[in-house]
Design a protein that fits this description.
The protein is of the alpha/beta class and 313 residues long. The protein folds into 2 domains: 262 residues, Alpha-Beta Barrel (TIM Barrel); 35 residues, no CATH class. 40% of the residues lie in helices and 11% in strands. It has 11 helices and 8 strands. Helix 8 links the parallel strand 6 and strand 7. Bound molecules: zinc ion (ZN). Zinc ion binds next to loops.
């Protein structure tokens, strides 16, 4: 079976802000501390940061090879107006272009943006997408804006003109960020106003699955991502959850993704992808044609024709 991972990040402190790691660690510490003395948060942060040293994507490609993942989408969120970031967006874009050249044919890239960057932000996004041939827009509403913010409409016009998808994080995230703007219904206005743009709701097959499910069922341009399925604290029995999700009649709208490097410490891509593809539960009662849609077909449908393997460039 061809497997494409629709949701990955380069596990590098060049791209993931220190504050984001500290957010994650606060919850880890709270969980460990409840059951006995836990290492100090500062030490947990150091350990966690030390695992984010895959600056060139080599470790990710090795993981993909071991797991049988042919290609993956790299998401590059723009945290810059909310957290201190080590690099400006233009530099992150340049480095992701380099990573893609280093590993030909393995990665698509969705570039981040923030509506509060104004006209200069739109122009920069458009230029980088065209210069590097990037494949989509990545939005992170927990940074403090709605995905239906009018300031995003010029970005959606850029995407409409190039047939690029928009990937929108939904649901909870680091504890210092805003969850309100990340509710899936916040996408509704934009999805209605830009019917030719495909919107992929990050994590929406996991959290807010009922609301996101009716959006996907009734808005032709709304898709669901399952990134983080193996590491969502509220879904301990994830194979059962995915199996229920895959029997709702929405398999033409669900895009497989892992949210690597999430879950890296619990067996990595090989274990989680293996359980999905070869395990007894996830695809029980799901036909082969639907499995193919989830594991690669739907992603190819939202990507611009030119971005598809064998496409125009
Ligand atoms: Zn992610």
């Amino acid at each position: 079976m061809t497997v494409y991972d629709g949701h990955c990040h380069i596990a590098s402190t060049h791209f993931i802000p220190r504050e984001f790691i500290e957010d994650v660690v606060r919850n880890v510490h709270r969980r460990l501390d409840a059951r006995g003395p836990a290492p100090a948060p500062a030490r947990l942060t150091e350990n966690y940061a030390a695992q984010h040293d895959d600056h060139t994507g080599d470790q990710l490609v090795a993981e993909m090879d071991a797991a049988g993942v042919d290609r993956a989408v790299l998401l590059v969120p723009d945290f810059g107006l909310r957290m201190d970031c080590p690099l400006p967006m233009a530099e992150m874009a340049r480095l992701h272009h380099g990573i893609r050249q280093r590993h030909p044919g393995r990665f698509w890239v969705y570039l981040g943006a923030d509506p509060r960057r104004g006209e200069a932000g739109v122009a920069a996004f458009e230029r980088m997408v065209d210069d590097y041939g990037f494949d989509g827009l990545k939005l992170y509403p927990p940074c403090g804006y709605s995905p239906s913010d009018p300031g995003l409409y010029p970005y959606y016009e850029v995407c409409a003109a190039r047939e690029l998808p928009v990937f929108v994080h939904t649901g909870p995230t680091g504890g210092s960020l805003d969850y309100g703007p990340a509710h899936p219904l916040r996408i509704d206005r934009a999805a209605r106003d830009f019917p030719s743009v495909d919107f992929v709701l990050g994590h929406a097959g996991l959290t807010h699955a009922e609301t996101a499910g009716y959006l996907a069922a009734h808005r032709p341009n709304v898709y669901l991502d399952i990134g983080g399925f193996a590491s969502t604290p509220t879904i301990p029995r994830w194979p059962e959850h995915l199996n229920r999700l895959f029997r709702l009649g929405l398999n033409h709208k669900i895009i497989f993704g892992t949210d690597w490097p999430l879950g890296r410490l619990s067996g990595g891509l090989r274990r989680s992808v293996g359980e999905v593809v070869h395990g007894p539960t996830v695809f029980a009662g799901v036909g082969r044609r639907d499995q193919d849609l989830i594991m690669h077909g739907n992603l190819l449908r939202v990507l611009a024709p030119a971005s598809r393997p064998g496409g125009g460039g």
